[in-house]
Write a structure and sequence with these properties.
With 658 residues, the protein is α+β, with helices and mostly antiparallel strands. The protein is built from 22 helices and 15 strands. The chain has a five-stranded antiparallel beta sheet with strand order 2-1-5-4-3, sandwiched between helices. Strands 10-12-13-15-14 form a five-stranded mixed beta sheet. Strand 4 and strand 5 form a beta hairpin. Helix 9 packs antiparallel against helix 10. The longest helix is centred in the first third of the chain and has 73 residues. It is elongated and about 175 Å long.
């Protein structure tokens, strides 16, 4: 038996090698192919991203160069239009003039300020103004200063001169305690157009607004003036910007009603945004030479290639426009976010590049280069881009995985079936071997007893008639035991071959269990068991094969004897329950583990316990009982608690109660 088991183990090992080794080779080969395919797909995706970035860079360059050309053409009349005008393209933040190696910002190139300075310093006008200022500030003669300021107004030829003189007059009137007249002049100055400004480009009306706010008057007119000033100019000088900020903050503090307060808050936000851009523009002016735009332009001996560089936190895109014939050079600054939104709004562009992407600007960022025309500007694609690009190879990868899964599934399923059959054959071979050994032992025991008592009787060694009768009873009992064993083996053989035939006929179950009890009376008494029989006598007859059913009951009683342990009480019951006649065999023995209760009805199966190793048995009894009960249209139930006993119930349907 050991040699046979070793042979089975070798077969199983060879089987595992034959199935698992090719499967592992297949898995490794497929994974290697998938890895190579993924590497190629990754390289294709990187090439595709690089190509897409270059194409996006070309689209962006075309758009930026078009904007640059439009803005520099429109800025040809720099001196008059640029400080105040709106730009042609909404993406443009700033257009600055390049003078030598210096960047001139819009508010710095306004030549009108020089004209104003010339008018305010004209000999006639400035002489009277200085005389009045001398009376006001040096001699503290405010009345004389008022007279002189009035004379300067009369001699003024230009609006800016008259406005400037009136502003000084209102101040002197305030100092001479003629506040009402002063406020009247401030209100008149408040109505002056913004073009009437001093040599710093600050409208005179803003100075008057500050004086009126000190007297908590004119809020409505002042807030309208601030709004007009903000809308009239794209860029304000730093001095004017901070003056407007102070005026708005004063309006917020002294606003007489909610509408003026809300308007002031809105203008305050606008001024803050303007100041942020203004400060960045001043920083750009300071860093202009470090951007190396001039160097990159001067080093070009052939056709100049446009270069765009990022600047600031905004972030701005900055480029220098080469001078056209007879014109100056300009610096064009656009808002990166706005130009990107402009690109995406183009239907042709969005159809060509449907995936999401965004710009990263500055050194040290990862991304795809937009080309040599963009310095320190890269583009990165969102996850959706990778998903779009991966469609070209994801189906193939899915096919590989599906094919591998299918092949492995079929292989492993076939291996499982074969493994199950091999294990079943090995288990059946072991069970048959154990069965032969058990049957041999079971046959040998009664035959030995029969022979021993028969020889004793033949030799006349029996001392009394009673002893002879006991010997004869033992011979009969062992013969019956041998008959039951042989019947079990023969019935099992017929069941295996499908030749077992039952001959049911109406029979009294009460009589059957009584006959079964009588048949087991001698062996039970011999081993000290007490059989308690309880039966309902009014049960109707049931169509059964009497011998087969009695054989099933005897097998259950025989099992109860084997596994009662130290207990010597066995019960045999017959009762009616739920339309069935129920025959129960109850012991108080070792019990059955719940995990084993479904297996005990399998052929040759015996629970692997120490008690079973010491107890003889073939493993056929319960299998025959189950077959007999099912052949009669019934079923068998088992209830057991380890250490407390077991109850087997044969349930047969009562035809009269169907």
């Amino acid at each position: 038996m050991a040699m046979r088991s070793l042979g089975h183990r070798k077969q199983i090992l060879l089987f595992l090698l034959a199935v698992i080794l090719p499967s592992l080779v297949l898995v490794v080969f497929t994974l290697r192919m998938m890895s190579q395919e993924q590497e190629l797909a990754q390289k294709r995706m990187e090439d595709e991203r690089r190509r897409a970035a270059r194409e996006i860079g070309q689209h962006l360059l075309v758009r930026l160069e078009k904007i640059k050309l439009q803005e520099t053409s429109a800025a040809s009349d720099w001196n008059q239009l640029l400080p105040k005008r709106d730009y042609v393209n909404p993406e443009v933040v700033l257009v600055g003039l390049i003078d030598g190696r210096q960047l001139i910002l819009p508010w710095e190139a306004d030549l009108k300020k020089k004209e104003v300075q010339k008018l305010l310093n004209s000999s006639n006008f400035i002489r009277k103004i200085r005389s009045a200022e001398n009376e006001e500030f040096a001699k503290k003669d405010f009345s004389r200063a008022v007279v002189l300021y009035r004379q300067s107004m009369e001699t003024a030829r230009e609006p800016v001169q008259r406005g400037y003189a009136r502003l000084q007059l209102a101040r002197a009137l305030t100092k001479s305690h003629r506040k009402k007249e002063a406020l009247a002049h401030y209100r008149d100055i408040l109505t002056l157009p913004s073009s009437v400004a001093d040599e710093y480009g600050i409208p005179l009306s803003l100075y008057a607004a500050g004086r009126l706010l000190e007297e908590s008057t004119g809020h409505k007119e002042i807030i309208e003036l601030i709004g007009t000033e903000l809308e009239a100019k794209r860029w304000l000088s730093p001095a004017e910007s901070y003056l407007l900020q102070d005026l708005v903050e004063k309006v917020i503090k002294t606003a007489p009603d909610a509408s003026i307060l809300e308007a002031a808050k809105d203008y305050h936000r606008m001024i803050q945004e303007h100041l942020r851009k203004l400060e960045q523009a001043l920083e750009l002016q300071g860093d202009f030479q470090s951007l190396a735009l001039l160097t990159s332009q001067r080093n070009q001996t052939e056709k100049l290639e446009p270069v765009w560089v990022p600047y600031g936190n905004g972030t701005w895109l900055v480029s220098m426009a080469p001078p056209m014939a007879g014109s100056k050079s300009f610096l064009v600054v656009v808002q990166a976010q706005n130009i990107l939104a402009s690109l995406r709004s183009d239907s042709g562009f969005s159809e060509t590049f449907p995936s999401e992407f965004f710009f990263v600007m500055g050194e040290g960022f990862e991304g795809e280069s937009l080309g040599p025309n963009f310095r320190s500007i890269k583009i990165t694609f969102k996850a959706s881009q990778d998903e779009t690009l991966s469609k070209q190879w994801s189906f193939q990868r899915f096919f590989y995985l599906l094919a591998l899964l299918l092949v492995l599934s079929v292989t492993l399923f076939g291996a499982y079936l074969l493994w199950r059959d091999v294990r079943r054959e090995v288990r059946m071979a072991n069970m048959r071997s154990q069965f032969v050994s058990s049957v041999s032992h079971e046959l040998k025991t009664p035959l030995t007893a029969i022979r021993m008592f028969a020889e004793t009787l033949r030799l006349g060694r029996s001392k009394s008639k009673k002893t002879s009768e006991e010997y004869l009873d033992t011979i009969v009992n062992e013969s019956q035991r041998l008959t039951r064993l042989l019947n079990n083996v023969l019935d099992f053989s017929k069941i295996e071959e499908g030749k077992r035939i039952y001959q049911p006929e109406p029979a009294s179950l009460y009589e059957i269990i009584q006959a079964s009890a009588r048949a087991m009376e001698y062996p039970l008494n011999q081993h000290g068991f007490r059989l308690n029989v309880t039966a309902e006598e009014d049960l109707p007859d049931v169509r059964v094969d009497r011998d087969a059913l009695e054989q099933a009951i005897l097998n259950l009683l025989n099992n109860a004897m084997k596994y009662s342990g130290d207990s010597r009480d066995i019960e045999l019951r017959l009762q009616r329950k739920d339309g069935h006649a129920v025959i129960q065999v109850i012991d108080q023995g070792v019990g059955i583990d719940p995990k084993e209760q479904k297996k005990i009805f399998e052929k040759f199966y015996r629970i692997p316990t120490r008690e079973n190793e010491r107890t003889a048995g073939t493993g056929l009894g319960l299998s025959l009982v189950s077959h007999i009960v099912r052949a009669h249209g019934g079923h068998i139930e088992v209830e057991s608690v380890p250490g407390k006993g077991t109850t087997f119930s044969i349930c047969l349907p009562l035809e009269s109660e169907k």
